[in-house]
Amino acid sequence: MKKLFSVLKYAKNYKGYLTANVVFNILFALFNAVSLTLAMPFLKLLFEPANAAQMGFILLKGKPDFALNADYIKDITNYAMAGLITTQGGKIKALVFICIIIFVMTFFKNVFRYLAMFFIAPIRNGVVRDLRNKMYKKAMDLPLSYYSEEKKGDLMSRMTSDVQEIEWSIMQSLEMIFREPLSVLLLFGLMLVISIKLTVYILLLLPIAAIFIALLGKSLKNSARKSKETLGGLISIIEETLGSLKVIKAFSAMLPMQRKFEDMNQTFYKQSVSVYRKTDLSSPLTETLVTGILMFILFLGGSMVFKGELTGPMFLTYFILASQLIPPIKQLTTSYSNIQKGVASEERIDKILLADNLIHDKANAKELTQFTQSIEYKHLYFAYHKGDNGHVLRDINLSIEKGKTIALVGQSGSGKTTLADMLPRFYESDQGALLIDGVDIKDLKTESVRQHIGVVTQESILFNDTVKNNIIFGMQQVSDETVVEAAKIANAHEFISKLPNGYDTIIGDRGGKLSGGQRQRLSIARAILKNPSILILDEATSALDTESEKLVQEALTNLMKNRTSLVIAHRLSTIANADEIIVMNKGEIIERGNHQQLIALNGTYKKLCDMQSFK
What we know:
The chain is of the alpha/beta class.
C-alpha cells in the first residue's frame, strides 16, 4: 500500500481534478450496483406472476419495515411489483417501466464513468509534464561528476519510458483505490443482504486468489525493473552510435557494433516478453479463480433453492451480483500489475530526483557583482569520488591577477582541465579553497560566478538552431547589430554572410553543417557577446588546421583583450606570450614561470617544447 501511494504522490498538485475523479468514480460504482439490483423486480415479474387478489393483499399489508435481511428484500420487491402493476396498468407496462429505469440507470452510470476519465486526463498528462520538467532541471543542476558514473542513454530512458509508465500507473492507482474497491464493497453488501451464508463462502475463498496475484505482482516488478535498465543500455548504444558514426565507419566497426546492439536488443526482447506474459497472465488467472469460486457458489445456491432457503429470483439476482465481481476484481489485479511496473519506474526516476547535488549555494551566499582583484587557489585538493585517495588535484597553490593570462600545460591526464573546471564550480574541492577577490567561491552564489566566466572548449558545443541563436545562447533581447559586431570580432561574419540564410541558417546537429574552424569561431563569438571578465580557453585551437587556427587565434586574441584568461594548451606556440605558464603533472604543479624562464630551467616544459620543435 505504501508503494501504491508513493506513485500517487505525483498527483498532489491536481487536487481539484483528483477530487472530481473520485466523486464521479463513487457515483459510477453506486449507479452500477443499483442498476444490478433492479434485476430482482424484473425476474420477479417474469417468473413469479401474481393475480389481482395477491397484489391487493400485498398492497393492503403496506410497505414493509426496513430490515437488513433477505426477507426484507423479498417483501419490498413484492410490494414494489404490486405497486408497479397496479399503477402502470398491467404487467407489460410495468415491464416497460422497469426496462426504462434500468436503461436510465445504465446511462447515468456510463456518464459518470466518462466524467471520471475526463477529469483524470489532466492529471495523467500533467504529471508526465511536471516529472519531465523536474527531471530536466535536476539533470542540469547535478554536478558533472554525476555523469561520469551514469550512461546518458539510461538517463534518457528514465525521462521518457519510465515517466510514461508513471502516467499509466496513476490512472490505475486511482481506479484501484476509489472505483473498483467501492464497487466490490457495494456488491458484497447487497450480496450479504440476500444471503450471508453464500457471501461468507466467497470471502473465505477469495484470499486464495489474492495470494497467487500477489506472488505474480512481485515477480512482475522485478522483471519490469530489469527491462527498464536494459532499455536504458539500448538507448545508450544508439546515442553512442549516432554520435560516433564517422569513427565506426572509419575503423570498419559496423559489424561489432551491430552485434553489440543486437545482443542487447535480444536481451530486452526476452525481458519484455516476460513482462508482457506476466502482465497478461493476471487477468485470465483472476477470472479463472473467481469463476471457479462462482461455480462453487452456483452449486451451493442451487441446493438452497431446492431446499426452499432461497427463491429462484433472489438467487439469480445474487448470482448476477456475484458475477459482477469479476470485472472489478480483474481490474484490481490488472491495476496491481501495472502499478508494480510503475513502482519499478518510480525507483529508477527517484535515483535522479533524489540524487545528492554536492554543489549547493549556502543560505547566506553572496552575489559576485564584479571581478576586480584576483583568483586564488589555496592548498586545493580534489578527487572525483569523495574519500578517494587518488586525488586528481593535489595541493594546488595559484594566484591569477585581474587582466593576466595564465597558461596550463602538461601531459593528458595531468589535471589541467579539472583545475580550470573548478573555477565555474563544475566540481567542488575536497580540501583547500578557491577564492575570487578574497571570497571563498563556496560563499558566493554559483550562478553569479558563472555570469562572469566565458568558456571556449576544444569541441565546439553548438545546438541544432540558427547561427544567431547559437551566438546569443543564454542571453535575452540582443540586437542584430550587437550579434554582427561579436561575429566580426570573432572573424566569423564573413563566412556567416555566405551561408544560405545568413544568421538565420540552421547549422545542424552540433553544428554539423559547418567546418571545425567555423564552429570554433561561432563559439568565440558567443563568448565575446557575453563579455565575461574571466575566460577559460580549453584547447581552443588544437583540433584545427593551420589556416583555421590562424583565424581562430586572431579571434581569441581579440577576445582576451583586457580580460583575465586561463588557457589550457597542447600547442605551446599559442601560449608563448602568457604572463605565467603553469606546468602540471599527475595533479601537481611542478614548474611555473614565463616562457623564457621555463626554457632556461631546462625541465619538463623545455622537453615539451623540444618535442614540438618549438623555437
